[in-house]
Design a protein that fits this description.
15% strand; three-stranded parallel β-sheet; alpha/beta; 39% helix; single chain; 15 strands; disordered N terminus
């Protein structure tokens, strides 16, 4: 019996020892897990603190912006800026302060911008320049500085401030409006690209199809380059371009027959043909010439000012519209002073600032009277530029009637918004 009791006691002691051993191993495993979790938590906390320390600070990081944040490390797209030109002086104020206006013009095109041997200037662009000067109170005979603007330098002259306004047979296009430092104003002539041809070199030519493979004079920096390429490609024609810096260079190449055709605005081609026919005491260039009937493009010719120069652009634009409105109302250089201003339409045209100008230099209420005294209405300016100037539109280099340049009530495109 004693032996059995002793055996049971030994088994109980062994069981307790085994259980303690197992329990110790479990406690060690549990302790180890706890230590690992504590270390992981510590590492996570450290990483979180590090991430917090290096977290990006959002804000405007452009130092030229109105809301520049010097503490920001990452731009959040919130930057704001003053409008371009907001901190600059209006050209109108600068012109008034200088007492003169610099107008970029042509000198070689009859009807638009022409400088005669005796120093007199004529043409629709010149009439427009003079009208703008008169509108802002300058003497159009003494206070305009005319600057020769070529096809290749005109926008540089405008952007640099070497001219105050560009009124020089310049086509209004999308890319010029969007990409260049220019805002367009009044369209004073609706034109299209034409082709002047040496008929001795191309006998019997009466269409563009008849001048395939021609050497063609084309102005550098003009829309005519692209229009010419497009037209010939579409119509499966070939040509060789003779690049010309300006009209004088193109004319020289055409007359010495380096090129046998010359492309440009139709108004320019008509004017150049007429001028060359009068050369050499009427003998002409020594060969016969013709203008092909096709138009290769639309060429709305407009004045231009610098971008974001709104007050000045408004003045330039509404001077042209004022000349159109005057013709529509039957007001001209001979009768503007006797109009009945009790009629609201006539009073607004002849005796109202209409908000034009700047705070420093608002236009005079009689600004359109000055325009009419200088250049007359649109019909008068056109007649002097392209016709014999008698008011009857006779002997015109380019007729207005039946063309896009007729006023809208005669079926043309010249149309002025309401002046009110």
């Amino acid at each position: 019996m004693k032996q059995i009791y002793a055996l049971m006691l030994m088994l109980m002691m062994a069981s307790v020892a085994f259980t303690g051993c197992v329990s110790d191993d479990s406690d060690d495993a549990k302790d180890t897990t706890t230590d690992t979790e504590t270390e992981t938590e510590t590492e996570t906390e450290t990483e979180t603190e590090t991430e917090t320390e290096t977290e990006a600070v959002l804000g405007c990081i452009d130092s030229t912006a109105n809301n520049f944040n010097a503490d920001a490390t990452e731009d959040d797209g919130s930057c704001t800026f003053d409008p371009v030109g907001a901190d600059t002086q209006s050209t109108l104020d600068a012109v008034i302060a200088a007492g003169s206006m610099k107008c970029g013009v042509k000198t070689s095109q009859f009807g638009m911008g022409y400088l005669a041997d005796d120093g007199t200037r004529s043409g629709l662009d010149i009439e427009y320049c003079r009208a703008v000067a008169a509108a802002i109170g300058l003497d159009p005979d003494t206070a305009i500085e005319y600057v020769l603007a070529t096809g290749s330098n005109r926008f540089d002259l405008l952007a640099s401030g070497d001219i105050d306004v560009l009124i020089r047979t310049t086509t209004w296009t999308t890319s010029r409006d969007a990409d260049l430092n220019a805002d367009f104003a009044g369209i004073n002539f609706y034109d299209g690209q034409g082709m002047l041809v040496n008929l001795d070199a191309h006998p019997g030519a009466d269409s563009m199809d008849d001048i395939d493979t021609a050497n063609i004079c084309v102005g550098i920096g003009t829309t005519t380059e692209g229009n010419l390429a497009d037209y010939f490609q579409v119509n499966d024609l070939t040509y060789t371009a003779v690049n010309s810096a300006d009209a004088a260079a193109a004319k020289a190449s055409f007359t010495d027959q380096s090129c046998t055709a010359w492309t440009g605005d139709m108004s320019a081609m008509v004017a150049q043909k007429w001028g060359m026919e009068q050369s050499n005491d009427g003998a002409g260039p020594g060969f016969s010439m013709g203008i092909m009937p096709e138009l290769m493009s639309k060429e709305p010719l407009a004045a231009a000012t610098r971008d974001n120069d709104d007050d000045w652009n408004d003045v330039v634009t509404w001077v042209w519209y004022g000349m159109l409105t005057a013709e529509e109302l039957g007001v001209d250089s001979t009768n503007y002073a006797t109009q009945n201003l009790s009629n609201p339409a006539y009073n607004r045209l002849l005796n109202s600032t209409l908000g034009l100008g700047t705070e420093t230099n608002p236009l005079s209420p009689t600004w359109m009277q000055s325009v009419l005294a200088t250049s007359g209405n649109y019909a008068e300016a056109y007649d002097r530029s392209f016709c014999d100037g008698t008011g009857a539109f006779e002997n015109c280099l380019i007729d207005r009637a039946g063309t896009q340049n007729a006023p809208y009530w005669d079926g043309g495109l010249q149309y002025a918004p309401p002046m009110r």
